[in-house]
Amino acid sequence: MKAVKVFFSLLILAILANNVRLISQWSESRGVYDDICYLRQAHLFQRFGWHGLDTSLARETDGYLAGKLRSIAFAEWNEPTKAPCHTETADGSKRVMTPPPGTGFVLALFPEGFQVVPLYVLANLIIAGFALYGLWRARESASLALAAVFGAASIYFMINPAKASYSMAPTMVVCALVGLCTARLFVGDDRRRLLMIAAVGVLLGLSASFRIANVVLAAGYFLFFGVSFLVGRNRETFAAGLTLGLAFLVGMLPVFAANLVNSGNPLVSAYGGQDTAPPSLDPAVLRAYLSDPQFPLIVVACIWTPLLWRIANHAGVRQLTLLVGGNLALNLAFFATHPVFTQYYIIPVLMLSFWTMLFAAVFTRGPAKEVHVADGPRAPEMISRIPN
Questions:
Q1: Within 13 A of 191's CA, how many CA atoms are on the CB side?
Q2: Residue 382 DSSP symbol
Q3: Residues 254, 304 contacting (CB under 8 angstroms)
Q4: Can you say whether residue 211 is alpha, beta or left, with left for phi > 0 and alpha for psi between -120 and 50 degrees?
Q5: CA 326, CA 34: separation in Å to the nearest integer?
Q6: H-helix or E-strand containing 12?
Q7: Which has fewest Cβ within 10 Å: 81, 135, 150, 204?
Q8: How far is CA 370 from CA 132, 327, 384, in A?
Q9: CB 209 within 8 A of CB 268
């Protein structure tokens, strides 16, 4: 097995090196409107510090936005009211940016004019680290095969489709982190269960700072822990759900702060139009997903989840598949009924699902253990003490 691990490690590193080569040639002026807004948010943070949360066009006194729009040949670059991904607040007092502040914040960590390349290189390095970790933790041939195939694919996904939006680079990293913590929650040390739940909650909340749609990634988690409480109705399930909810709110604080500054209400975002339209089944959107490379990945996820349930020899892994399956179903339902289609909308929940199931597979060893009570053995509760 060591020879196989060495071979696939070299393959992952080769894909990583090729990614870095390609990324190093990227331009920050590729004509995508959302790119300009993420870069403007980064510019505001570098110029004003945390006061950069205020994205009002009234602060556009140095011509940064106009210069960026002119560089991509935007016809109305000198007309502020026509600036893309900006909207007027409900009271009409100002025009602000619609994206949340997280992507701009991570871009602001790098020098202006050289922000996208280092962001993507760093994100690729982190994902490669997760892939290698999963590969070398695998102890059985099946989990090794999964780690090898998905590890190599995960690096490829950091170029396509992750390059479609700057928000995808940090999102992909968070999905890997949440997947690792979720697997540890169900297949790890029970003494750290609440700590893992808190980590998952904070990370899921923070993911919404990069893409507001990432908030849907938490849907399956709240469903699972909510049903667990309804079934168990005990202190343990209540503490688990409460911990997740409070941690999620902590992770959402940057979004709440940005909403408060820009729209005057922490619960009201600056988004409007199609992005806030009610759910509806649009045949054109469904056809777009069916013909997109996202669809085969959806099929793989929908096969892998029940298959992991069938072959799981660990009680915690079966509970994990319930969470993954519910989260996948809720996210697919949301985006299938969302009036806007892109080539990367489904990717975050797929990556979260794949990383979670991969780490569960490589962490699991030995048969599941029964939980005993005074009147004999019974199946573990949905959120019970999870055996090692």
A1: 0
A2: T
A3: no
A4: beta
A5: 31
A6: helix 2-23
A7: 81
A8: 33, 27, 11
A9: no
What the block records as the tokens of 224 is: 């699972």
Identify which of 116, 132, 107, 124 has the alpha carbon closest to the alpha carbon of residue 18. 124
With H, G, I as helix, E, B as strand and everything else as coil, classify residue 268.
coil
Q: Give the CA angle between residues 190, 191, 197 to the nearest 5°.
A: 75
Angle of CA points 232, 306, 370, to nearest 5°: 45
Q: How far apart are CA 149 and CA 186, in angstroms?
A: 23
Q: For residue range 251-273, list pLDDT tens digits in order.
A: 999 999 999 999 888 988 877 66
- List phi, psi (to 5°) of 295: -65, -45
The amino acid at residue 139 is: R
Residues of the chain whose pLDDT is less than 50? 366-388
Tell me which residue of 355, 20, 16, 357 sits closest to 174, measured CA to CA.
355
DSSP calls for 283-352: HHHHHHHHTSTHHHHHHHHHHHHHHHHHH--SHHHHHHHHHHHHHHHHHHHHHHTSS---TTSSHHHHHH
Q: Which two tokens stand for residue 242?
A: 């409460």
Kindly provide the residue ranges of all beta strands, DSSP E only, lying in the chain, ordered along the sequence.
Answer: 86-88, 95-97, 371-373, 376-378
ω into residue 161 within 30 of 0, thus cis? yes
Distance CA 221, CA 232 (A): 16
Closest CA to 198 of 255, 240, 253, 235: 240
Amino acid identity of residue 36, one-letter, is I
| Non-local CB neighbours of 58 within 8 Å, separated by 6+ positions | 94
Whole-Å CA distances, 5 to 124, 157, 219: 20, 21, 35
96 backbone dihedrals φ, ψ, rounded to 5°: -130, 165
**Helices assigned H by DSSP within 113-218:** 116-137, 141-157, 168-187, 193-207
Q: Read off the pLDDT of residues 42-71 as tens digits, 9 standing for 90 and up.
A: 999 999 999 999 999 999 999 999 999 998
- Is 210:103 a contact under the CB 8 Å cutoff? yes
Q: Residue with structure tokens 């922490």?
A: 266
* Distance from C-alpha of 149 to C-alpha of 135, rounded to nearest angstrom: 9
pLDDT tens readout for residues 270-309: 776 666 667 778 899 999 999 999 999 999 999 999 999 8
